[in-house]
Amino acid sequence: RHVSTTIMATVTVAGKLQAGFQDGDGTNAMFSTLHGLDFTKDGNIVVADYGNHCIRKVTLGKGDGSSVQVQTIAGVARQRGYRDGDGHQALFSSPMSVAVGRGDIIYVADTGNSRIRTVVV
Question: Of 114, 82, 120, 115, whose CA–CA distance to 100 is shortest?
């Protein structure tokens, strides 16, 4: 007979209760209307921050929450538009989802611009 002692729990990885924009440690980071996410090959999270019009990376640490870091990897917070370019030179309009492909290339459904775009990190 096997008795499971597994405890299921829901824990916030990053973000605050209110919407906004803030990079930094997971407990102080802020997002606005998050949509799709995916995982990089090293287990970190890439997320489409729909309301802030940018792509964010959540670097997971030891799992205690204090070592989680959030950074914007593409786009300019709260600035909607269309422009290709490096990191903070690129502009998105309401990115809806992301998918991480081979070589950690990030594919973005840039919904407001009706395009599929790539982010190379």
Answer: 120
Residue 72 CA to residue 2 CA, distance in Å, equals: 45
Query: For residue 36, what are its two tokens?
Result: 């799709």
pLDDT single digits (tens) 44-102 = 999 999 999 999 999 997 655 558 999 999 999 999 999 999 999 999 999 999 999 99
Instruction: Name the CA dihedral angle for 23, 26, 32, 38, rounded to a multiple of 10 degrees.
Output: 100
Whole-prediction pTM: 0.89
Distance in Å from the first CA to the final CA of the chain: 49
> If we measure between CA atoms, which residue out of 36, 52, 47 comes closest to residue 14?
47
Looking only at the bridges linking them, the beta strands covering 105-110 and 115-120 are antiparallel
Cβ distance 98 to 106 under 8 Å?
A: yes
